[in-house]
């Protein structure tokens, strides 16, 4: 079964930037719609951005204007460029397919704090 692995998180000051990566064990992202999710401490997992197999990206309000989702040409990775980070962006970030979800990866922790 295809596995997902997120990386790129860390501690960043408010206003800073990070680039998250989600790597799949097979080049599935050109054939599937994939999303990035954010789970704040004690909160539910919430969708941030969705990338269709045609390459169209949709953002939810927390991500609009600050985050950019892209995909590798090979189709085995998706990325989330995050700018102007706020304390409310703190949490664990995951990726997964929309229509045929895979087992969740461990996520990558982002902490926005001064």
Task: Looking at this protein, list some descriptive labels.
114 residues, mainly beta, four-stranded antiparallel sheet, 10 strands
Distance between the termini: 40 Å
Strand coverage percent:
over 45%
As a whole number of angstroms, the C-alpha radius of gyration is: 13 Å
Number of helical segments with 4 or more residues: 0
Shape estimate: globular
Let me know the average pLDDT: 97
Main beta-sheet strand count, sense and barrel state: 6 strands, mixed
Any low-confidence stretches, pLDDT <50, length ≥5?
Answer: none
| SSE ordering | EEEEEEEEEE
Q: From the helix content, strand content and strand pairing, which structural class follows?
A: mainly beta
Strand order of the largest sheet: 2-10-9-4-5-6
Total strand segments: 10
Helix content: under 10%
């Amino acid at each position: 079964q295809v596995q997902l692995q997120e990386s790129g998180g860390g501690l960043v000051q408010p206003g800073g930037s990070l680039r998250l990566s989600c790597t799949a064990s097979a080049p599935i992202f050109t054939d599937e719609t994939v999303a990035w999710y954010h789970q704040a401490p004690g909160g539910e997992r919430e969708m941030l951005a969705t990338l269709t197999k045609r390459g169209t990206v949709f953002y939810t309000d927390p991500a609009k204007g600050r985050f950019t989702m892209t995909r590798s040409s090979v189709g085995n990775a998706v990325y989330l460029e995050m700018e102007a980070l706020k304390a409310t962006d703190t949490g664990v970030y995951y990726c997964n397919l929309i229509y045929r979800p895979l087992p969740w990866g461990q996520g990558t922790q982002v902490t926005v704090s001064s």
